[in-house]
Amino acid sequence: MTSKQINTINGYFDRKHMDRKQLEAVLDFNNLTMDAKYIPEIMELLKADENEVGENVIKDYVRFVKQRSGTGEITWEELIARLKDLSLEYSSFGIRVQRFSKYSYWEVFFNHFDITKYKDGNEKLTFNQEYYEDTENERAYEIFEKYEIDTESETCNVLIQIGNKWDKLSKKDKDNMISALDSIYATHYVDKSGMNLDKDMVEKITMSGADLVPEVGLRDYFIQFVGGDSISLRF
User: Fold this and answer.
1) 8 Å CB contact between 220 and 194
2) CB 46 within 8 A of CB 57
3) What's residue 131's pLDDT?
């Protein structure tokens, strides 16, 4: 199922002024279908955008919403399992940590986490920043290959090759080339900020449903500590 198809169906239900709860009420997650009265109009909308629309598109949409539904209290172990499912090195969003109080608000973004286990059964979850050098370099060399830049040439270095192509590149191509050069040749400094969570200090974790934006799908996790303090995570 394409992002365009998902957005078309989301838009259809938005025009019906349905909130998330109402949308889920007309979807059958067990049988991967929906209230039959909506299907003909949705199929017509999809056919207006696509030459052919398979019958499984409704099933795929219901499956998509199902995967992003489910709210309520979760365990520490479920939180850790969801973190482990992330591919943070490929994510544009990372993990956002928020703290609200009567007089202040702050948020910090992290892109890496570690888990420390102790003999007494307690665990410490540490959020921090990590520069994914291998991933960035891999992307950079893919860009050079796309524009036929020979990174192993002994007679013509990379900068000369890029210079020879520069005037013919679009703005987007130039931005890609600058990004690739930065990844390989620049010195990268890592933000040393971090945050720790101790399992035995967590009283309750409450999870929201994920949004229905195809490229995002972020959830909120409200963590309440023993003593009343709290923070929110989004990933």
Assistant:
1) no
2) yes
3) 87
Task: Quick: pLDDT tens for 138-192.
Answer: 999 999 999 999 988 877 788 899 999 999 999 999 999 999 999 888 888 777 8
The pLDDT value recorded for residue 1 is: 85
Q: Hey, CA dihedral for 141, 144, 145, 146, is it positive or negative?
A: positive
CB atoms within 10 A of CB 15: 8
CB atoms within 10 A of CB 97: 21
| Element at 207 (helix H, strand E) | strand 202-207
Mean of the pLDDT values across residues 82-96? 87
Residues 6+ apart with CB under 8 A from 83: 95, 113, 125, 235
Total Cβ atoms within 10 A of residue 116: 11
Residues 219 and 205: beta-carbon distance below 8 Å? no
Half-sphere exposure of 123 (CA within 13 A, CB side): 12
Query: pTM value?
Result: 0.70
Distance CA 66, CA 57 (A): 14
The pair of three-digit structure tokens given for residue 176, joined into one six-digit string: 């890609």
